[in-house]
Amino acid sequence: MGWQSYGLDQIAQRLVLDAKERDEDSLNQGYKMRMATAYGLERFWGEHLRLQRREPEKAEYWKATWDALVRVMGHAGVIIPNDLIDVNDVRTIRAMSAKLWGETPLNAQGRKLTLQDQRVALAVLSQLCDCIVWWTQRYK
Question: With contact defined as beta carbons under 8 Å apart, do 129 and 37 qualify?
Answer without folding.
Answer: yes
